[in-house]
Design goal:
It is a single chain. The protein has 233 residues and is an alpha+beta fold. It has a domain of 150 residues: Glutaredoxin, CATH 3.40.30.10. The protein has six helices and ten strands. The strands form two sheets. Strands 2-1-5-4-3-6-7 form a seven-stranded mixed β-sheet, with helices on one face. The chain has a three-stranded antiparallel β-sheet with strand order 8-10-9, with helices on one face. Strand 4, helix 3 and strand 5 form a beta-alpha-beta unit. 26% of the residues are buried.
C-alpha cells in the first residue's frame, strides 16, 4: 500500500478540485467561493526565499492579464499568515509591487497534502512548485509540477489558460507552440461522408494538411499584447 499517496492525495486532471477553507493574506476564503471563475492555485516552498520572491513579483505583475481571462490567482505555502504578510510587505517596500491576490497559510499542510503538493522524498514540510489550473466549473484542467530550484514561466501559465478557454469556446484542439489568435485544429471527421466533405473543403480553402488535420481561426480571441512585461522579475 502506498502510504504517501494516501497521505498526500491524488488530485487528477478532470476531477472536481477538492474544496477547502483557508486563512489568507486577504482574509478567510473557500475554494467554492470562486465558482464561475477560473483559478490558478499554486504552491511555493517558503516565504523570504529567492526563487519564490521572483515568482510572486511576476504573478503580481501579470495579475491584470489573468483577470482579463476571468482567472484568479491563489498562492499557498505552509508558512504562517504573519510570515506571508511580512513577506508581501517586504516585497512592497523593496520593489513597490503590491501582491493583489491571496496567499494561503496552510500551517498544518492539510491543503498541501490533499493536493499532493508535498513530496516526502524531497521534503516532509515544504511544498514543491505545483500549479493547478481549475476551470469555472471547479474542474482540474491542468497540473504542473516544478522542482524547488526552478522558477515557473508565468507567460506559459497564461497561455495555458487562454488555450483551454479557446479550445472550450471553439470545441477544437490547440496545436504545438500555439499563441493566442493563431489558428486552431478543427475536430477530425467521424464518418467517411464527413471525411469527403473535409477533403473538398480543404481543396477550396487550402486550410489543412490532410483530412485529419485542418485549421480554423478561433472565435472571440484576445489579441496578445506585445507590450507585456511578464518576463521581468
Amino acid at each position: 500500500m502506498d502510504y504517501e499517496l494516501l497521505a498526500n492525495g491524488n488530485v487528477k486532471i478532470g476531477q472536481m478540485a477538492p474544496d477547502f477553507e483557508a486563512e489568507t493574506t486577504m482574509g478567510n476564503i473557500n475554494l467554492s467561493d470562486y465558482k464561475g471563475k477560473w483559478v490558478i492555485l499554486f504552491s511555493h516552498p517558503g516565504d523570504f526565499t529567492p526563487v519564490c520572491t521572483t515568482e510572486i513579483i511576476a504573478f503580481s505583475k501579470a495579475n491584470t492579464y489573468f483577470e482579463n481571462l476571468n482567472t484568479c490567482l491563489l498562492g499557498l505555502s505552509v508558512d504562517s499568515n504573519s510570515s506571508h504578510l511580512a513577506w508581501v510587505y517586504d516585497i512592497f517596500c523593496k520593489t513597490g509591487v503590491r501582491v493583489p491576490f491571496p496567499i494561503i497559510a496552510d500551517r498544518n499542510g492539510t491543503i498541501a497534502r490533499k493536493y499532493g503538493m508535498i513530496v516526502n522524498d524531497i521534503s516532509n514540510t515544504e511544498t514543491v512548485r505545483n500549479v493547478f489550473v481549475i476551470d469555472d466549473k471547479g474542474i482540474v484542467r491542468v497540473i504542473l509540477v516544478y522542482p524547488m530550484n526552478i522558477g515557473r514561466c508565468i507567460p506559459e501559465i497564461l497561455r495555458i489558460v487562454e488555450a483551454l478557454q479557446t479550445a472550450d469556446k471553439n470545441k477544437a484542439s490547440i496545436p504545438v507552440n500555439w499563441v493566442p489568435c493563431e489558428p486552431i485544429i478543427v475536430p477530425p471527421p467521424k464518418t467517411f461522408l464527413e471525411l469527403e466533405d473535409r477533403v473538398n473543403q480543404m481543396r477550396e480553402d487550402g486550410n489543412g494538411v490532410s483530412w485529419y488535420l485542418n485549421f480554423m481561426n478561433p472565435k472571440n480571441c484576445i489579441e496578445p499584447d506585445e507590450n507585456k512585461q511578464l518576463f521581468e522579475a
